[in-house]
């Protein structure tokens, strides 16, 4: 669902880690060290994350930190996340 949002907005992205505790990186590789991470678009990620927070989705705005999804998150929660993520990414791109 997040991949659909990023693809819609033309953002190259990679997921890292287990499904329930994953990281998101904007770029063409999953970073394995600090130099790799510096090659990602962490500024866009931070803007995106801060927009998510502004719209009520709580996460760590540092792209080196994981997201957490668990069984208690219902389909309606994930649909809402997709809607807010789409809006937040559009705002982040407009702010660049």
Automatic annotation (TrEMBL):
Top-rank taxon: Bacteria
Record-linked SUPFAM superfamilies: PLP-dependent transferases
Name assigned to this protein: Glutamate-1-semialdehyde 2,1-aminomutase
Native organism: Oleispira antarctica
InterPro entries: PyrdxlP-dep_Trfase, PyrdxlP-dep_Trfase_small
């Amino acid at each position: 669902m997040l991949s659909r949002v990023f693809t819609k907005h033309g953002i190259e992205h990679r997921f890292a880690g287990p499904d329930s505790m994953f990281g998101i990186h904007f770029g063409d590789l999953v970073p394995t060290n600090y130099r790799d991470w510096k090659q990602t678009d962490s500024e866009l990620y931070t803007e995106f994350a801060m927009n998510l927070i502004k719209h009520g989705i709580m996460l760590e705005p540092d792209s080196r930190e994981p997201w957490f999804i668990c069984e208690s998150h219902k389909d309606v929660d994930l649909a809402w996340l997709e809607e807010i993520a789409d809006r937040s990414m559009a705002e982040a791109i407009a702010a660049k």
